[in-house]
Amino acid sequence: MISLPHADPGTPDLTSPTAYLKWVGKGQWRTLVVAIAFGIVWLVSQALFPAAMGKAIDEGIIGGDAASLVQWCLILIGLVVLSAASGAMRHKYAVMNWMQGAFRSAQLIGHQAADTGEALTRTVPTGDVVATVSSDAMRIGGLYDVSARFAGAVVSYVVVALILLGASTPLGLVVLIGVPVLVACLTFIVRPLQARQLAQREESGTLIGLGADTVAGLRVLRGIGGEQTFLKRYAVQSQSVRQVGNRVAGYQAALDAAQVLLPGIFVLVVVWLGARFAIEGEITAGQLVAFYGYTAFLVIPLRTATEMVDRATRAHIGAGKLTRILRVRPDQTEATEPRPLPQGPAPLHDPDSGVTIEPGRFTVVVSARPELSAALADRLGRFGPGETDVRLDGTRLADASLADVRRRIVVSESDPRLFTGTLREELDPWAEHDDAEILRALAVASGDDVLEALPAGLDNEVEERGRAFSGGQRQRLALTRALLTGAETLVLVEPTSAVDAHTESRIAGRLTAARAGRTTVVMSASPLLLDRADHVVFLRDGRVAAEGTHARLMNTVPDYRRTVVRGEDD
């Protein structure tokens, strides 16, 4: 629970997918505008190819004017060069927009995970969080990738329609009315596709979560012979994802087919009408060729429109999943008007349990129910759900700034979390200590043997979740990290539960010496730690039942003695 500082993403309260997509677009509007500009130039220049060809035929070939033929050929070459150059720039900025939209979303989820901590995994399954980063963020970015081409498609469609209206009103009206009608027909496919894509997304998230749980508990599964049980569960869920994917594939195939069929029908209609008008003498041969070129070109805007619908559908689903994560509130929030905490050592009091931690003492809290002492540790450090009423010399921690509380009070939980990086970065995330100080803290935690076993020492890479270390090694490294914070008040939850008795004895002696004169609170029933305690607090049902020295409580409180002896037997 040692919180690391990170940049504030500065996002507003985004509660709907539409609001989120607008916010992402607003954040990268400059590159979007540039991409749209190049997209318009790219497609409009292509839309003018048939016009130049028609003029070259009518004026140059049929009209017999060589100069006009050369002129229109040069114009056509210029349009080709302009289209190629603008197309390259459009693609560059489209990829940039895709990456910005995708990675901004992924980064935002990272900030949200850091801010909310355990509140996020209590509300949203881990598989859904992973799927949102790996899949939904990419789908959101895809919307901004296609936006430049879609803008160019709209503008080029208008340009072609106006040219056709100028040459033939019926053909112009067919284009102006026909294209929107064809795009509207896609809604009959898109709506059921969206529902099936959402179902597929749900099933995929469940599958990822099941896989993550299985991998995290692989050692336990092997110990109890449960691999086959989880393998069957994974196979069943995998088949469910496949079945949902098959249902999505049918509608996706229909949408892809519509991208070919509908524009093809549209081309046939326009060419047939144009041919009739040419036979009747209403349009020239060059215009007929141009009309065919226009209809062939209009396949691009139509396909782009259908792609835009598909991308928007996927992005909306992905944004819906992402906003679900963004709606999770952290367990603790900043006070509206933070009050400063008292300077210097001060007593720390928890009204819920009646526990008072006196400054400068080594205090051990014992409970027959470890979850209650762990909950006390959360309250003392202002962690966990709900607002704590813990006070430092009369000032509520809930009324102080979180940064001030985290600086003064550090809580190291029983399940140590290690991350990827060098061991030095793992033990000293803020890079505030030299190697000598790190080694001294490591010695206090009796972690010398851990360091000696690493070929690169402090520069050795820590694997994901510290899986290369045993439970006891991870625990000692986490204790070292907590000691290096130099916190005024250090709260440790079962810091020696995974080490042997000899190692625990060394840690107990060194810990009390290293923290002499500073406030240290340990949640444990270990006799080796209790022997070193200045003060012991015994909890019964989460409330103070007795307190004093370890020896006195052993002689006068039977419940305390039974709790400690049971811990010793274990």
**Structural class by secondary-structure content:** alpha/beta
Helical segment count: 21
Spatial strand sequence of the major β-sheet: 6-9-10-3-11-12
How much strand content do the residues show?
Answer: 5-15%
What is the tally of beta strands?
12
List unreliable stretches of 5+ residues.
1-11
- Terminus-to-terminus distance: 27 Å
The averaged pLDDT comes out at: 84
Oligomerization state: single chain
- State the helical fraction: 55-70%
Question: What's the Cα radius of gyration?
Answer: 34 Å
The global form is: elongated
Main location: membrane
Transmembrane segments: 31-49, 69-89, 146-165, 171-190, 260-279, 285-302
Domain ABC transmembrane type-1: 33-314
Region (Disordered): 332-353
Overview of the molecule:
- The chain is of the alpha/beta class and 570 residues long.
- The protein is built from 21 helices and twelve strands.
- The strands form three sheets. The chain has a six-stranded mixed beta sheet, sandwiched between helices. A four-stranded antiparallel beta sheet has the order 2-1-4-5, with helices on one face.
- α4 (66-116) runs antiparallel to α6, α7 packs antiparallel against α10 and α8 (187-216) packs parallel to α11.
- The longest helix is centred in the middle third of the chain and has 53 residues, at 227-279.
- The two termini are 27 Å apart.
- It is found in: Cell membrane.
- Its main location: membrane.
- Residues 33-314 form the ABC transmembrane type-1 domain.
- GO terms for molecular function: ATP binding.
- The chain crosses the membrane at residues 31-49, 69-89, 146-165, 171-190, 260-279, 285-302.
